[in-house]
Amino acid sequence: MIKVGDTLPSATLQEYSEVEGEGCSIGPNPVDVSKATAGKTIALFALPGAFTPTCSVKHVPGYVQHFDDFKAAGVDEIWCVSVNDAFVMGAWARDQKTGTKVRMLADGSADFAKATGLTLDLTGRGMGLRSNRYSMLVKDGKVASLNVEAPGKFEVSNAETLLAQARG
């Protein structure tokens, strides 16, 4: 499992952009994790699935609500990563009204989740291999803090915990 001090694995996530801007097409766009984190501070949180109860009611809304606080703490971007396709993540972004506050990034084949060692096997519940619920503060591509939830819990990956770590 990835740990504090490690560099994020090389992976490509997908992002669906609702509105064309800055030369981006609307359809799914590749996001090279190494390039996208270089020289930036990223508040990254991951969760088992879009539109699921805890993720939709607590996890994403907390990060949207604290967007300005993260910016004030020196965070350049907030990323939400889930094992879903880019179209689902785009629809969920609309539903959650993330706008430009939270980048909703798809890890469709769980490549990023596998590479970090932070997978969650929900095959028995009909959901297949997913990402564990966690948050991490990433500085210039390296993990500065990591908060991994115990199965079925939502206690340490919330926006408030990561925000306190970002403030140092």
UniProtKB/TrEMBL annotation:
InterPro entries referenced in this protein's UniProt entry, alphabetically: PRX5-like (IPR037944), Redoxin (IPR013740), Thioredoxin-like_sf (IPR036249), Thioredoxin_domain (IPR013766)
Residues annotated as the enzyme's active site: C55
PROSITE patterns: THIOREDOXIN_2
Catalytic reaction equation(s): a hydroperoxide + 2 glutathione = an alcohol + glutathione disulfide + H2O
CDD domains: PRX5_like
EC number(s) given by UniProt: 1.11.1.27
Gene Ontology molecular function: thioredoxin peroxidase activity
Residues in Thioredoxin domain copies: 2-168
Protein keywords: Antioxidant, Oxidoreductase, Peroxidase, Redox-active center
GO cellular component, one term: cytoplasm
Family, as annotated: Belongs to the peroxiredoxin family. Prx5 subfamily.
Role this protein plays: Thiol-specific peroxidase that catalyzes the reduction of hydrogen peroxide and organic hydroperoxides to water and alcohols, respectively. Plays a role in cell protection against oxidative stress by detoxifying peroxides.
Protein name: Glutathione-dependent peroxiredoxin
Originating organism: Variovorax paradoxus
Highest classification ranks of the organism: Bacteria, Pseudomonadati, Pseudomonadota, Betaproteobacteria, Burkholderiales
